[in-house]
Design goal:
Layout: H1 10-13, H2 16-24, E1 30-31, H3 44-57, H4 71-83, E2 94-97, H5 99-111, E3 117-121, H6 126-134, E4 138-142, E5 144-145, E6 148-149, H7 151-161, E7 165-168, H8 182-194, E8 198-202, H9 225-229, E9 237-242, E10 254-257, H10 260-273, H11 279-290, H12 296-317, E11 327-328, E12 336-340, H13 347-357, E13 359-360, E14 362-363, E15 375-379, H14 385-405
Parallel strand pairs: 1-13, 3-4, 3-7, 7-8, 8-9
Antiparallel strand pairs: 2-10, 5-6, 9-10, 11-12, 12-15, 14-15
């Protein structure tokens, strides 16, 4: 039969990002395109210990659980971990989700009607753009600089469009790696509060940060917008995060923290979507974090040292002649380098040439509301050092050949 899909569904199957992911799952293609951590740094032995113990200790681990998530893990999360970030949550103010992407999807379902205006950082995460487009939102970009969103432009967009929501990643924005200044955080929060605008704050990359030039320690302790507002009832910020970037993506455990009213609506939508995220995964994760010798803060420190090394390797490789006249700002954290290509070097056409060489990257158009200029996003966290070197060599060959043809 002829299937008549919704108009918005076609934005999913026609996405270049889906095509890239499909190709990177095949053969030996090196991916600099995806949002993946380093597999060789997963705590495999401790995860194996946790899995064996959790499954054998209680058959309830394989039973249905609460839609809000495994209670002991929620307690661990809202205890020292989030309190260490200055985040205090009210009872019933936390929902465990299948990664941070589901938190975004659930919030979009219960808060956005077709035609609603939503503000986003530009550039921003492709996943956020996809979720909003599926809900029929009108996406409005907000300009920023190295300190975060520009308050004057944000104010103008609010007055012109009367938006319902702002999506933002103040700590190491995907894809640019920007860390908002404390002053800018306060200004944005004040503006949104004054106009009764909900802020969705994604802190999935907030723990991944590097030393600055000269060896100075990074400023990694700016409070989140959620912590700055410090309102547990009727607040203007929904705070989301994930263990995918710091422990292991396959555990598929993220969270949303906010007002009880907001969280209860998202929990109701979650029951319609999948009833609950994996109770087994959540129990396994809780055992890893709370019982085994695993120390999440020490593990993150290891990740940051290694990712800093890989970032330096990538930037050194970008000094080769093939990349002449390309530009980038060194990120202070996250997983990506946001590169501006030389004039005349088209990102989508370059991607075809790179794929033929056996390497992939993400064209900047997928991170932008309105085209994104001629930029590309390169992931440095997933490929090992040797694979990163080979991938960048192949990229350089693709750039050189593309330039010669042009």
């Amino acid at each position: 039969m002829k299937y008549e899909f919704s108009a918005r569904a076609h934005t999913l199957v026609s996405s270049p990002q889906l095509s890239i992911r499909t190709q990177t799952r095949r053969g030996t293609l090196i991916s600099l395109a995806e949002e993946l951590p380093a597999e060789e740094l997963f705590p495999l032995s401790l995860l194996a210990e946790a899995a064996s113990t959790v499954i054998t200790a209680d058959a309830g681990a394989l039973q249905y659980g609460d839609p809000e998530g495994y209670a002991p893990l929620r307690e661990w999360l809202t205890g020292d971990w989030l309190k260490g970030k200055g985040v205090n949550t009210a009872e019933g103010g936390v929902l465990l989700t299948t990664g941070s992407q589901q938190a975004i999807d659930l919030l979009s379902r219960v808060y956005i009607d077709p035609g609603d205006r939503v503000l986003v950082e530009n550039p921003t995460s492709p996943g956020i753009l996809q979720a909003l487009r599926m809900q029929g939102a009108v996406i409005i970009p907000v300009q920023g600089d190295r300190n975060g969103l520009l308050p004057d432009h944000l104010r103008a967009q609010i007055h012109q469009h009367r938006p319902k929501m702002l999506f933002a990643t103040p700590s190491y924005t995907n894809p640019s790696g920007i860390l908002w200044s404390l002053e800018r955080r306060k200004e944005v929060l004040e503006l949104c509060t004054a106009h009764n605008l909900l802020i969705v704050e994604d802190d999935s990359y907030g723990d991944l940060h590097f030393k600055r030039a000269g060896g100075a320690s990074p400023v990694a302790n700016y409070p989140s917008l959620y912590a700055l507002e410090n309102v547990s009832k009727g607040g203007h910020v929904l705070y989301i995060g994930s263990f995918s970037k710091t422990v292991a993506p396959a555990l598929r455990t993220g969270w949303a923290a906010g007002s009880r009213e907001l969280i209860s609506m998202m929990a109701a939508a979650k029951q319609m979507a999948d009833w609950q995220s994996s109770s087994l995964n959540q129990r396994l994760l809780h055992y890893l974090l709370d019982v085994t010798a695993f120390n999440l803060r020490e593990h993150i420190a290891v990740l940051n040292r290694e990712y800093s090394t890989r970032l330096k390797l990538m930037t050194e490789l970008l000094k080769r002649p093939a990349w002449k006249n390309s530009e980038y700002e060194l990120p202070e954290g996250g997983m990506f380098l946001w590169v501006s290509l030389p004039e005349g070097l088209d990102a989508m056409l370059l991607l075809k040439a790179a794929l033929a060489k056996g390497v992939a990257f993400l064209p900047g158009q997928l991170c932008s509301v309105n085209g994104g200029g001629n930029r590309i996003r390169l992931n440095f966290s997933h490929p090992g050092r040797d694979e990163l070197l080979l991938g960048m060599n192949l990229m350089s060959e693709a750039v050189t050949e593309f330039t010669a043809r042009s």
